[in-house]
């Protein structure tokens, strides 16, 4: 029986010209910047047409394969193994549906297509053609990271993205290629190897990372694996959870301290003109650095009896937690610093344009810490010490704990909401204590 083909992806234009038009898979289309492969077919009938048609189909497959190989080579193919297998089965269905006279569900049909291909496909499509009933590949650690990045919508270059890449690299250094470690096959040995690695992991400067940092990075890994186990319906243990960390011996010389007034003044005297308003705002509000550099003009409210800033998600950054969303009063020099920063700032733009961008907080931290270290080599003093300083000043002025929690956006600031009622009432109460504390 002769093998016949039906003409798929071919349409006839009004001028009589035959056109091949086939949509690229989403990841390939995004990489190429084109949604379709579109080609005019020169031959309109007979063997010449079929040869040209098969050449164009082969070119389509080559473009998809090479683009995905390039994406994978640069770490930009974010599909999980299961998604790749699903795509391969869809591609197989498209290939077998072109064949008339043979059962598209018969494994021999896929084998025939594979054997007649001029260029052999990638291993996943090869498996789909030769063994479409094979079980889906097991979910790996690499899949878990990819799925987490997709579902949490973590962008490349964002702080979350950088953190995720760093902890993924730690896992790879400890356990080898994460694409070869199936979640359901992980054992106590994997757990011990990872723990040993994290206890001896080094920072860029060659020093061992702090135990607290190792725990924080591991919390990200735990979240990644938990998400994959839940979403992929895998009945397996999370081997990264509840690791037997050694008891942390936190010495007084290692603790981060509030910045004392004399040190604050010395640092401020050395700051450049573009950094000083940011520093003054931090020491007068206790905001996190990322909260401050991410402020846009719309977040500043200067009219009314209680000038304040709105800490909320905007076009530049999110906030750390839901409790971080709050209004912080502006008094004294902090109010003057904000007014200075607003001069000439277009509506909706960052008030600190040099740092109001993704990863801008890292750049601002580096610039400020350079000055801090010029003044004091004591590693217990950092920019974050301004936040501790505000908390201490509020406490020393007699502010109740609910004020301090609400002012700084701590997780249990709900006490402030219950105690002081409306946002306007809370803001006035916070302003009163900010003035008493001489912020």
Task: Describe what you observe in this structure.
The longest helix has 28 residues, at 46-73. The chain is built from 18 helices and 8 strands. A 3-stranded antiparallel β-sheet has the order 2-3-4, covered by helices on one side. It is mostly helical and 439 residues long. The radius of gyration is 30 Å and the shape is elongated. The model is unreliable at 1-5 (pLDDT under 50). Helices cover 51% and strands 7% of the residues.
Main pleated-sheet profile: 3 strands, antiparallel
What would you report as the Rg, rounded to the nearest angstrom?
30 Å
Low-pLDDT segments? 1-5
Helical/strand content category: mainly alpha
Short overview:
With 439 residues, the protein is mainly α. The protein is built from 18 helices and eight strands.
């Amino acid at each position: 029986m002769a093998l016949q083909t039906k003409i798929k992806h071919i349409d006839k234009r009004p001028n009589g010209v035959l056109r091949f038009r086939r949509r690229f898979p989403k990841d390939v289309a995004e990489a190429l910047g084109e949604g379709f492969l579109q080609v005019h077919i020169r031959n309109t009938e007979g063997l010449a047409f079929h040869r040209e048609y098969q050449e164009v189909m082969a070119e389509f497959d080559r473009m998809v394969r090479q683009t995905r190989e390039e994406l994978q080579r640069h770490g930009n193919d974010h599909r999980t193994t299961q998604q790749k297998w699903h795509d391969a089965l869809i591609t197989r269905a498209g290939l077998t549906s072109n064949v008339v006279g043979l059962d598209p569900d018969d494994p021999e049909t896929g084998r025939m297509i594979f054997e007649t291909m001029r260029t052999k496909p990638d291993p996943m499509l090869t498996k789909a053609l030769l063994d479409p009933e094979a079980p889906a590949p097991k979910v790996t650690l690499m899949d878990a990271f990819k799925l987490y990045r997709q579902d949490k919508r973590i962008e490349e270059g964002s702080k979350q993205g950088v953190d995720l890449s760093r902890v993924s690299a730690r896992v790879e250094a400890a356990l080898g290629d994460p694409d070869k470690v199936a979640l359901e096959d992980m054992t106590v040995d994997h757990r011990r190897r990872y723990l040993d690695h994290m206890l001896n992991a080094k920072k860029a400067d060659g020093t061992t990372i702090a135990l607290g940092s190792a725990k924080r990075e591991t919390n990200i890994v735990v979240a990644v694996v938990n998400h994959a186990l839940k979403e992929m319906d895998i009945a397996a243990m999370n081997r990264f959870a509840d690791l037997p960390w050694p008891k942390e011996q936190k010495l007084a010389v290692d603790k981060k301290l509030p910045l004392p007034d004399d040190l604050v003044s010395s640092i401020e005297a050395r700051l450049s003109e573009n950094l000083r308003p940011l520093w003054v705002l931090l020491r007068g509000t206790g905001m996190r650095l990322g909260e401050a550099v991410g402020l846009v003009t719309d977040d500043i409210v200067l009219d009314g009896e209680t000038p304040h800033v709105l800490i909320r998600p905007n076009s530049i950054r999110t906030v750390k937690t839901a409790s971080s969303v709050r209004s912080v009063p502006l008094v004294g020099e902090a109010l003057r610093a904000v007014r200075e920063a607003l001069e000439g700032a277009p509506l909706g733009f960052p008030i600190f344009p040099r740092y109001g961008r993704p990863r801008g907080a890292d750049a601002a931290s580096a610039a400020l810490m350079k000055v801090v270290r010029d003044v004091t080599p004591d590693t217990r003093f950092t920019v974050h010490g301004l936040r501790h300083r505000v908390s201490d000043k509020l406490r020393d002025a007699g502010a109740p704990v609910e004020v301090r929690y609400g002012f700084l956006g701590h997780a249990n600031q709900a006490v402030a909401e219950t105690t002081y009622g409306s946002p306007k009432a809370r803001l006035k109460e916070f302003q009163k204590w900010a003035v008493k504390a001489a912020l």
